Amino acid sequence: MEKGFKKAKRDVLAALETGDYQHVARGSINVKNLLATGEVSAQEVIEIIKKCSGTQHSCSPHHSVPGIEVHVLKTGTWYIKFFFIDPSAWFISVHR
C-alpha cells in the first residue's frame, strides 16, 4: 500500500482535478486560504503541487482528531495544508 507523500500528492491532485475538495472554516480564511476565496484557482494549486517533492512535505496528526494526518507542503513561497476525510480533501491553508 502506497503511503506518505506520493499517496497524499496523488490523492490531493485527484481531488482538485475532480472538484472533490472542501475548505475548513476558520477566522482568517481571507489570508490563509486563497483557494477558498478564489484568489487562486484549483488549476493553479494543481500546478504548485505538481512541482513539490517529498522534501517539501511534512505530516502530523490533526490537533483535535489525532487519527487524521495533516499534510503540509512548503514550496517556494507557497504554504499548502490539507487533510483527507473520505472521499474529500479538506484544505486548511493555501497561501504565500
Compact summary:
This protein is α+β, with helices and mostly antiparallel strands and 96 residues long. The chain contains 4 helices and 5 strands, in the order αβαααββββ.
* Helix coverage percent: 25-40%
* Low-confidence segments: none
The neighbouring-strand order within the major sheet is 1-5-4-3-2
N-to-C SSE string, H for helix and E for strand:
HEHHHEEEE
* Gross morphology: globular
Helix/strand-derived class?
alpha+beta
CATH architecture name: 2-Layer Sandwich
Number of strands: 5
The main β sheet shows up as: 5 strands, mixed
Compute the number of structural domains: 1
What is the overall pLDDT average?
A: 91
CATH T-level fold name: YaeB-like fold
CATH class: Alpha Beta
Alpha-carbon distance between the two ends? 33 Å
Characterise this structure.
The model has no long low-confidence stretch (mean pLDDT 91). Strands 1-5-4-3-2 form a five-stranded mixed sheet. The chain contains four helices and five strands. α1 (4-18) runs antiparallel to α4. The termini are far apart. β3 and β4 (78-85) form a beta hairpin. The radius of gyration is 12 Å and the shape is globular. The chain has one domain: 2-Layer Sandwich (YaeB-like fold), CATH 3.30.2310. It is 33% helix and 32% strand. The longest helix is centred in the first third of the chain and has 15 residues, at 4-18. The chain is α+β, with helices and mostly antiparallel strands and 96 residues long.
